[in-house]
Amino acid sequence: MELSTDKTIRASLLFLAFIALTWGIYRTAHIIAPIALAVFIWLIIDAFAQWLDKLSSKFPYWLALTIAVLTVVAGLVGIVLIIADTAQEVSKEAPKYQARLTEIFSWMSHNPLFERFLGENVTFSELSNRFELNQKLQTLMAGFASTIQGVASNFALIALYVVFLFAAQSNFPKKMDDLFPDKARRDQASKVGTRIRHSIEKYLGVQTVISLMQTVLSYIIMASMGLDNALFWALVIFILNYIPIVGGLAAVVLPVMFALVQFESAAMIALLTGLLFAVQFVIGNTIQPKMMGDSMNLSALVVVLSLTLWQALLGGVGAFLSAPLTVIIMIILAQFKTTHWIAVLLSADGQPDLDEEDKKRANVQPSM
Fold it and tell me: Where are the domains of the chain?
């Protein structure tokens, strides 16, 4: 009876701790989100620098790190230039897009299927007034501008965090020795930290390569078919592919929606949709699983739930980092008996405390 009561108390405390932690993250999202993004940018740069450093013994780490930092900065500057150029181009072509939208609406208003919902002989201006489309569009654009401004304002802070992370990197081993004087516990903590870092680095590295492949192929398709602002849509596809599950779908839907406004041929729109979906499907279901392996070890349901939770807590940054953040929590929970069962539920194979090398050794059959 006492054992059952003890388990009930532990479960209640865990639940209350989860609620308190979730509330705390939600209330401090404006502080945590830039730090989380800075940590992952630091990992990407460091992993890239170490990869360059291993290419040749004559390639010093400081030079590899400089190249990695310049590459990331050049990428960010390129993103800003692409967005600015696209905004200018869309503003220039706005009358053409508006005329096409009016044409689409005119076709919809004479279609019996849409007349049932919109009514007969409804003009675009009447529909706009009825549903307050102009006000909603202005609100949407204001929200988008606010998001861009927020990211830009946090950029200097994120860059500062990254600089200090690199400055403190050399002291990490000594701090581990001070935190864990006992060698056995220090080795275990080091193993957990190494596994977390390798899992995140592999995920981000593979996801970057996969996104680049999907982006290049999608850009070739969109540019060859004459889609306006193909470079911008390629950038959107690259960013959205970091978001699990829904990112790949959105990466197809958004360019296709723009194609509806630009192209008059339904065959062109259908062909563009099919080709973009084929790129996402083939790479996402053949190349990506082989490259990713078991580095995440998260069940599909957990990936979807974690995406919903982290997006609600941290916004776009949470959606972007939902899978790595969940893996970190799973690995940490697996180290304690009280929370090990939670890690088992989060994992895909029920072995959250084993990395890929441990699993390979465990599956080796003894020879006769």
Answer: 23-92+153-168, 210-291, 296-352
